[in-house]
Amino acid sequence: MRPTRFQQFTIDLITKAAHPAVKGAQTFGDAGFTDAPDFSGEVIQFASGATAYLHHPVTAPVGENYDQAEAPVEGEEAIEPVAFPDGFGQGGKIKVQDLEAWLLALYASSGSREIKSLNAWSQRDGGTPEHAGVTVTFHSEGIMHVAVAHLLRPGQSTDQQKWYGPSLEV
Question: How do strand 41-46 and strand 22-27 relate by DSSP bridges?
Answer without folding.
Answer: antiparallel
